[in-house]
Amino acid sequence: MRRLAIPARPDWRDKANASGFDFHTIDGVPYWDESAYYAFTLRQIEDDLEAPTGELHAMAMDLVDEVVNSEQHLRTLAIPEAFWDWIAQSWRERQPHLYGRMDLAYDGFGPAKLYELNYDTPTSLFEAAFFQWQWLEDRLHTGHLPANADQYNSIYESLVEAFGTVATQIRRPFVLAALRESDEDQGTVAYLRDCAMQAGVECSLLDIEDIGVTADGRYTDMQDRVIGALFKLYPLEDLFVEDFGKYLPRSGIQLIEPAWKAILSNKGILPLLWQKHPEHPNLLPAFFDDGSRLPAGWVRKPVFSREGANIAMHLPDGEQVSTPGPYTAGPYIRQAWHPLPAFGDHHPLIGSWVVGDRACGIGIREDQSLVTQDSARFVPHAIVEDTRGVLMA
């Protein structure tokens, strides 16, 4: 694994705008950064990232049945009791799921380590599935990458296949919704709609804010039609505590991602995985936080948090690092400190995609801090064999 400089395409902004990648620059700061790329060998991809992703996904899925049948586990994960039966029913019915992303720390040498699962509202999808693939093709065409370079990326094909597989199980009308003011979320659902339509699944877009509720507690679209299935890029845990979400268990709506994803998107799944698979090479020791002082060598994370918010690190040398955020209510977990690799001032985090139940690609976001936050840049990757010195731009 190497970080290599490469000239940016002169017209990449035009291509981004033309493809609907409106959030390539956020608040004047580039989010998409193709002034460099990460190079992997095929062995690193297949043995160190793809295979562990599949294994970790299977381990997590195996835990769902145990959790939905345990009041103790559900309570520990801080899932409100009013939603327990609804979540369990969605699992017993094996309501279809679409995709997820697990975040891995990997330096090209040791085993990748699981930081967390983003299995409810994962983003950075469009840039991972489409725009970095377009970058690869363009750089191959201009000779900036060796002719045999490739990319670990079948995310688009896997999404279309997954939609096609579950097409008959998706109730109609099928609506994909995100927050009106979030360009990234709107871009994600627009891309997923395109994938669904490629698979022959009729669907439409809707702003979350425009979803209505009937007098008998069913969710409706702008034409007052009762929504059959809803892909919502909105956290389940927020719906659990908002007045709007109280209708979910009896509304009859089908959610994608399904209700049982509330278990896998909860960081409490990390200590449960560690209890089940202690010493697994791709897991970090993790425990539920008891509120005592965080010892050196450990990280405290809220069970509900996004984009690196409210993370507290106590480094082995005594330094303490923390990030701000709204997730202050807890509960929390503790995870053993395992730093992201450093390539100069850049700390890359591997987002490894699972579509259906298949590991199918990666995206990389890098931050200049030890915590990957919402300001982290997306940097493309390629599979090239190690010919040090030849590829440097």
UniProtKB/TrEMBL annotation:
It holds the Pfam family GSP_synth. One of its GO terms (molecular function) is metal ion binding. Residues 12-383 form the Glutathionylspermidine synthase pre-ATP-grasp-like domain. Keywords: ATP-binding, Ligase, Magnesium, Metal-binding, Nucleotide-binding. It comes from the Bacteria. The keyword Transport does not apply. This is Glutathionylspermidine synthase family protein.
